[in-house]
Design brief:
The chain is built from 3 helices and 5 strands; from the N terminus they run H-H-H-E-E-E-E-E. Helix content is about 35%, strand content about 40%. The protein has a 5-stranded antiparallel beta sheet. The chain is elongated and about 85 Å long.
Length: about 130
């Protein structure tokens, strides 16, 4: 058939694809992906430090209860949902579930049962910060 026959087949295939396309579903999927990325970027953005919270911050030890990937990567850091048991210096345990950005080199340190050095404001458990240098 030649060039024009192939061109006609492509036109027919394009029309079939346009008829089958779910624009509303594709837009909803794109919006969900954009929302997930925006949430990941909020994790990566520098947080405004509350001076009162910084003054209450204490060093503690956290035991990893569980950790799972969220599927997001921001600036080569993996977004992780982690459940930690933070043991304060006075012996009071605080369970904390949080999302954190973990540098790729430190992902292996988030095994269940692993102990991590952290700082935390005891009044705001979600304020836990892992000190990766220790």
């Amino acid at each position: 058939m030649g060039f024009f026959g192939d061109l006609n087949k492509l036109r027919i295939q394009g029309e079939e694809m346009r008829e089958k396309q779910d624009v509303k579903g594709d837009m909803a999927n794109a919006q969900a992906k954009m929302d997930a990325l925006n949430n990941a970027y909020k994790l990566a953005a520098p947080q405004q430090a509350d001076p009162a919270s910084e003054a209450r911050r204490v060093e503690a030890t956290a035991t990893v209860q569980s950790a799972s990937q969220t599927g997001m990567v921001v600036n080569m850091s993996q977004a992780i949902s982690a459940t930690l048991l933070v043991m304060l210096p006075d012996g009071v345990p605080i369970p904390v579930t949080t999302q954190l950005l973990v540098p790729m080199l430190n992902l292996a340190r988030l095994q269940p049962g692993a102990q991590l050095s952290v700082t935390i404001d005891p009044q705001i458990p979600a304020s836990v910060r892992i000190d990766w240098s220790k």
